[in-house]
Amino acid sequence: MPPSRQYSFTDRLIEQFDAALRTLAPSTVVPAQASPAVGVNDAGLTEEERHAAAQLLRIDHIDQLASVALYRGRALGAPSEEGRRRMLRYAEEGFDRLLWCRARLRELEAKPSLLAPLIYFASLGGGAISARLDDRWGLGLVNAQAERIGDRTDRHLSALPAADQRSRAILERIAEREAQQAHIALEAGGKRAAAPLRLGFAALSKAVASVARRI
User: Fold this and answer.
1) Of 54, 111, 168, 175, whose CA is between 20 and 30 Å from 132?
2) What is the pLDDT of residue 26?
């Protein structure tokens, strides 16, 4: 059996560049897991309901985008191959959810937020910087991110137009997976982030969401 390849930092940069293109550029990339909306029929949406749903989905798309970039950033600077593989696995799972949101936005005749490139590269950089932390703190960051997105997704489920069953199916699956991921991160040895850090994280996320839902 040939020895496993050891990735250099340059290899990882090339990998990240390719991943960024797949994430940000319009493409025909198909999610590894089919969208929960497949086979779900809407009851018929008015123009106002489509607009309201699209505003929420823009935020959910940005949330998944930020998570994917954060995990890829941690993978870029991961000190161990095990940690790198774990972060890339989290990123791939989030990438599927991102594609579900993007596809649903197209169905709603809407586009992702124009903030997407900025959020992606800012989160990627933040993840790379946080990779200097040990796994306990890194997994704590994963836990905080997943809990924050899960809480917001729950609020969006309450605010979503009742007739929009396709978006609801997607958001229910996202909420379920984020709750699982938050739990797994702590079970793997993650240390919960301090309350001031979590509050600051939430405040920044709220400000971004306020802009993302409009543009």
Assistant:
1) 175
2) 61
* Per-residue pLDDT tens digits for 74-124: 888 777 778 788 888 888 999 999 999 999 999 999 999 988 889 988 888
Cβ–Cβ < 8 Å for 74, 126: no
The model's pTM is 0.86
CA–CA dist 130, 73 (Å, integer): 8
Spatial CA neighbour of 204 closest among 63, 54, 90: 63
Amino acid at 29: V
How far is Cα 197 from Cα 191, in angstroms, rounded to an integer?
13
Pairwise CA distance, residues 49 & 68, whole Å: 28
Amino acid at site 155? R
Report how far residue 207's alpha carbon sits from residue 211's, in angstroms, rounded to the nearest whole number: 7
Query: How far is the CA of 73 from the CAs of 63, 129, 203, in angstroms?
Result: 15, 8, 22
